[in-house]
Amino acid sequence: MTEYREKREAAPEEAAGESRLPSLRLLAGFEAAARMGSFSRAAESLHLSQSAISHQILQLEAFVGQPLFHRVGRGVELTFAGELLRQSVARALDTLRRGLDRIAAYTDPGLVVLVGPAFLLQGWLQPRLPGLHAAHPDIIPLLSTDEEPGLADEVDLDLLISPRPLATEGWEDARWLRDEWLFVSSPELADRLAALPFERQNEAARLLRLEQAGLPDAVDAEVRRQQRRLGVAAIYDDAQLARDAALRGHGVACLSLLAVDDDLRAGRLRALAGYPRLPGAQWWLSRPMNALRSDAMERMFEWLSSAARPAPACAAGGG
Asked: How far apart are CA 162 and CA 157, in angstroms?
């Protein structure tokens, strides 16, 4: 024990501060030797000489002030202190490896970080991702939701979908999708409503009212008008909850076309005849002029621009 205390006293700079840690090199050598029960095999696995591993173990033992191994035949076994350290080091190295594995995905040259509102990514983009993968199999979209994105130059992103141009130096803004608001219901409810005169439709359904900040004035006014005519079944402050209620046949909802685009195409929802369709936001697609992943970003930008050119939905029964 004395020799280890002397070695620690010989290196007072290492003893300063409670947050001191041995180097990762020493810990990796120790973990390999502890796992394999042999300095020579640990040296082979780390592409080092046996003397180098032995020297690392001596340094680590001097650092902790305890013997970590004792020799057994041609191998080594951990002391009690060594076993305690092995458990901690094994957990720490495993955490580090998993962290590095996670980071590796973010260094893929095909990664493109796209930030946009949840309803649009789910209702419009998500159903079209197979088309992106077919056209550009190397692109890995990282989708992040943000209803009110902040300053783009403060966030690590490649593409941004927002309801207004950024007008920020170093960024390019392009008009993208134009939204629309329409009244929808489940197909079964739509059939029941169609069988009634317009003035009697309140006998079959009530309104699923969306109370959402930023709702266009014309949309809010029309929703209030329909509320007086139909009555209210429920009030929601989240568009996805209102959409879910409409899918379940709970009533009539006025929703963004981009939020229900795939539902309309698949026939899960139907645009109601006789109800107005109202203009919504002009959505913009923005990108930095200089980016690390410029090739993948450029191709995804062009793909998104191309995918937006057709009409967003074929809403049968709309009026």
From this structure: 13
